[in-house]
Write a structure and sequence with these properties.
Blueprint: H1 3-10, H2 17-27, H3 33-40, H4 44-54, H5 68-92, H6 104-123, H7 127-139, H8 143-153, H9 157-164, H10 170-178, H11 182-192, H12 197-204, H13 214-229, H14 238-250, H15 255-272
Helix pairs in contact: 1-11, 2-3, 2-5, 3-5, 4-5, 5-7, 6-7, 6-13, 7-13, 8-11, 11-12, 12-13, 13-14, 14-15
Length: 273
């Protein structure tokens, strides 16, 4: 990993007290939705972002969500934590995604799409694993923020963007420019912030799941498939969906469940457009 990226990770500010409290409540088996609502309500930015997500067509709640309590009840504790963390992480980092050819808003939307696909897909396979994977899917592309920043600082933004536009393998492109993939950078970021080992490891191997330790290999494979279907440079394109479905088949997954989930997301997008 380039020393410049290592230094960027080391210099990251700590997570906010609200996020630390959200993690604490989430980890407390005795805590409930009401406890989480009390913590979330302290941070106006998290509240605004949570309500924005709750009223997005991605989630299809079918009615306007106006209160934090409503949103947390509908999302559940795992998804609420994920949305709050995603918002806070992007606030802590300078988000200029020009090398990947997307705006910061589009990047956030793609992260939400990846998390939504993971939740809808894996809920049909194993609800408990779906909860574990949702946060990782939501945050797995975080490393791209630091990679984009490094590429811009090296004055390689234009050439990187030109190659990224038509790339079928962003991980290989990232390695060519900064020696590592975004999964490895993301893992280092959350290791720096003291996240649990399983969460860090499933993301670390998401670009190379066959090399993952056995205990996280299924998770790393699922993350890889989701970001293959919804890559930053061409989310839900026909080619990306075909690659993702093939990857699912090759890894022994029931590709028909994934296909059904993708179709549901495409139908929902058509209805909202």
């Amino acid at each position: 990993m380039k020393s410049s990226i290592i230094e960027s990770i080391k210099s990251l500010p700590p997570l906010s007290k609200t996020i630390i409290d959200i993690n604490r409540v989430y980890a407390d088996e005795e805590a409930g939705v009401g406890d989480l609502v009390k913590v979330v309500e302290r941070d106006p930015m998290i509240v605004a972002n949570l309500l924005k997500h709750a009223n997005s067509p991605l989630y299809g709640f079918g009615r306007e969500i106006k209160s934090v309590a409503q949103a947390v009840s509908l999302f559940g504790m795992s998804m609420t934590r994920s949305i709050a963390l995603g918002n806070s992480v992007r606030k802590l980092l300078n988000v200029d995604m020009q090398p990947y050819g997307v705006t910061s808003e589009k990047f956030a939307e793609i992260s939400s799409m990846q998390a939504t696909l993971m939740r809808k897909w894996y809920t049909k396979i194993d609800k408990q694993k779906a909860d574990t994977l949702y946060l990782a899917a939501f945050l797995q592309e975080t490393g791209k923020i630091l990679i984009a920043s490094d590429v811009i600082q090296e004055d390689e933004g234009v050439s990187f963007q030109s190659e990224a536009e038509h790339s079928n393998n962003l991980a290989e492109l990232e390695k060519a420019y900064v020696e590592v993939t975004s999964s490895q950078v993301t893992a280092k970021i959350f290791e720096h912030w003291g996240f649990e080992k399983e969460f860090v490891e499933m993301i670390r191997y998401a670009d190379n799941p066959l090399s993952a330790p056995e205990e996280v290999q299924e998770y790393a494979t699922a993350l890889n498939i989701v970001k293959t279907v919804i890559p930053v440079n061409s989310p839900l394109s026909e080619q990306a969906m075909n690659f993702g479905l093939k990857r699912a088949k090759d890894s022994g997954c029931d590709a028909s469940i994934l296909q059904e989930t993708i179709n549901d997301m495409l139908d929902a997008a058509e209805v909202s457009s």
